[in-house]
Amino acid sequence: MSESALPGPPGAAGPTLSSLRLERPSEGVALLVLDDPSMRNAMSEEMTASWVAAVDFLAADPTVRVVVVTGEGSAFCSGGNTSWIASEPGATPAELRERMLPFYRAWLSIRKLEVPTIAAINGHAIGAGLAMALACDIRYAARGARLGVPFLKLGMHPGMATTYLLPDVVGPAAARDLLLTGRLVDADEALALGMVSRVLDPDTFRADVLATAAEVAATAPIASRLTKTALARGHASVEACLDWEALAQPVTLATEDLQEGIRAAQEKRPPRFTGR
């Protein structure tokens, strides 16, 4: 378990984190590391509070262009801390609801980030841990990782928007299978289901994901954020999609980054986007 201060742009100061690290491995890339490997990175109260602080800090940092989430040790995240979940056997449903909603919203706060987010699933992602990964824009898994939502096997209804997020990612048929059986899938089956986009070698996993994150960070920031917004909001029809694109694309055509992108393509060099 770690305790660390938040790194940010020059002059920025952030709160101290517990059971969570925030690193800046390359320009524009922020790396959030769940850091309680002895507990398989279970979502403790300390980690939850640190997560909220870190996400708020990143949301206010204009230098961030992509956020990667991963776990320290052999697990990505084993989900909610079961001793915390079962700690009030005499509580009423209303009292437990008041407890669980802030927990759900805390971890799903990553959805409020305007920049692309990547879940780097280095090991087991279970229950609420998988839900948090599903809340990210992109998911990559290390070969050997296992993923699943075994809520029913623990005697509880799924939480943290799993019954929304999982069907949205894998489709209703696969989501029913996974939720009602509670079975775990390996990384290759997760890839076949569309739960993850790539399966990578565990020996080079973090470096490979961070290399991809650097590629995302090198794209035009305004275009990237608007594309994320379009994908998140969805479109009711092709015409609704065209209406959105006819607004969003002209915004990017009016940027300095568009001119830089065209110059770079003509000069056969990498573009240097500034977000203007």
From TrEMBL:
Reactions listed under catalytic activity: a (3S)-3-hydroxyacyl-CoA = a (2E)-enoyl-CoA + H2O; a 4-saturated-(3S)-3-hydroxyacyl-CoA = a (3E)-enoyl-CoA + H2O
Protein name as catalogued: Enoyl-CoA hydratase
Stated family: Belongs to the enoyl-CoA hydratase/isomerase family.
Keyword set includes Metal-binding: no
Keyword Zinc-finger: no
InterPro entries, sorted: ClpP/crotonase-like_dom_sf, Enoyl-CoA_hyd/isom_CS, Enoyl-CoA_hydra/iso, Enoyl-CoA_hydra_C
EC number: 4.2.1.17
